Amino acid sequence: MKRLLLVRHAKSDWSQPDLPDHERPLNKRGLRDAPLMAKVWTQHVARPDVILSSTALRALQTAREFAKAWGVEESAIVLEPRLYLAGRRTLLDIVQNLSDKAQLAAMFGHNEGLSEFFCWLVDREGEIMPTCAGALIRFEVDSWKDVSPGIGLLERYDYPKKYY
């Protein structure tokens, strides 16, 4: 069995229009929501064997909060450039190439791709993951290479607005 936690980055800051998209940080709400959701998820998910993050600042800041809550060194976060604004096929390729030593992986990325990927894996239609939402998906496979669309079983879905 393999388990994947997909997390959309927390709310980002749009106050500097000249700032490149890749460099946008979390805004005040994002800085509030990321530690909250990290704490929530640590109550439901053990420390992942691998934490992958987009190289975009807002995704990395979100991943750092989760790593801190899990007691994982920031240096253990694997920066995956292909996660930046990736579509579902790229996300699937990343998952299928994970080491089979990992039973639980956490992936921090962006919309629309992340929401489409989530829906594709668990056979849902059109769900949009809000910022800092997470979806824990279980796959009844022994190898990440065998993960494919429609075979995921949603174990838990959570998002910040449930807590305010």
Largest sheet: 6 strands, mixed
Uncertain segments of ≥5 residues (pLDDT<50)?
none
Q: Domains counted in the coordinates: how many?
A: 1
How confident is the prediction overall: mean pLDDT?
A: 97
Under CATH, the homologous superfamily reads Phosphoglycerate mutase-like
Distance between the first and last residues' Cα: 34 Å
CATH topology: Rossmann fold
Based on DSSP secondary structure assignment, what is the total number of beta strands? 6
The portion of residues assigned to helices is 25-40%
Tally of separate helices: 4
CATH architecture: 3-Layer(aba) Sandwich
Q: Strand content of the residues, in percent?
A: 15-25%
Strand order within the widest beta sheet: 3-2-4-1-5-6
CATH level 1 name? Alpha Beta
> What order do the SSEs take from the amino end to the carboxyl end, as H and E?
EHEHEHEHEE
User: What is the rounded Rg?
Assistant: 15 Å
The secondary-structure class comes to alpha/beta
Coarse shape = globular
Question: What's the arrangement of secondary structure elements?
Answer:
Blueprint lengths: L1 E7 L19 H15 L7 E4 L3 H14 L6 E3 L8 H9 L7 E6 L3 H10 L11 E6 L13 E6 L6
Parallel strand pairs: 1-4, 2-3, 2-4
Antiparallel strand pairs: 1-5, 5-6
Give a short overview.
This protein is of the alpha/beta class and 164 residues long. It has helices spanning 28-42, 57-70, 88-96, 113-122; strands spanning 2-8, 50-53, 77-79, 104-109, 134-139, 153-158. It is 29% helix and 20% strand.
Task: Explain how this protein is built.
By secondary structure, this protein is α/β, with parallel strands linked by helices. It has a single domain, classed as 3-Layer(aba) Sandwich (Rossmann fold), CATH 3.40.50. It contains 4 helices and 6 strands. The chain has a 6-stranded mixed beta sheet with strand order 3-2-4-1-5-6, sandwiched between helices. α2 links the parallel β2 and β3. α1 packs parallel to α2 and α3 packs across α4. The longest helix has 15 residues. The mean pLDDT is 97.
